[in-house]
């Protein structure tokens, strides 16, 4: 019986020693040495971890950003190919689609400074249809989500293309996500 009481007493002392000590006042906490992962899509972590890749698709007539995890940093061309491949099965189940098929064919892309220049072929001559606004919005919002792209310009047959913005106006100037803010789904 005495051994049992002694064992319980030792157990209580051990458990009491496992608690977090309390302080009378706050104390500073030192930040551990970095690097720390960021939310930027174009920056790999130092440990070679997975990266976020933003792709913009369509749901309920609005552009919605989807984030996929990838092992490598995609080039602008590869990133755009991932967008053009369309939503995956899980994204389709959530009601996500793409306005790109049948409206815009991407013939090529290149990075010129912080501007992504996209060469396109259009399905028809009537620029400004609502599905084209969504399609151009998908490309602009996807590419400008990258840290190395600030704006996107479009060309057709080597000439600047008038591209529809969310407000219905046409622009030959490079576009940003702000040009499509009215059709972006709140995050």
From TrEMBL:
<feature type="domain" description="GerMN">
    <location>
        <begin position="76"/>
        <end position="165"/>
    </location>
</feature>
<dbReference type="Pfam" id="PF10646">
    <property type="entry name" value="Germane"/>
</dbReference>
<dbReference type="InterPro" id="IPR019606">
    <property type="entry name" value="GerMN"/>
</dbReference>
<feature type="region of interest" description="Disordered">
    <location>
        <begin position="23"/>
        <end position="48"/>
    </location>
</feature>
<protein>
    <recommendedName>
        <fullName>GerMN domain-containing protein</fullName>
    </recommendedName>
</protein>
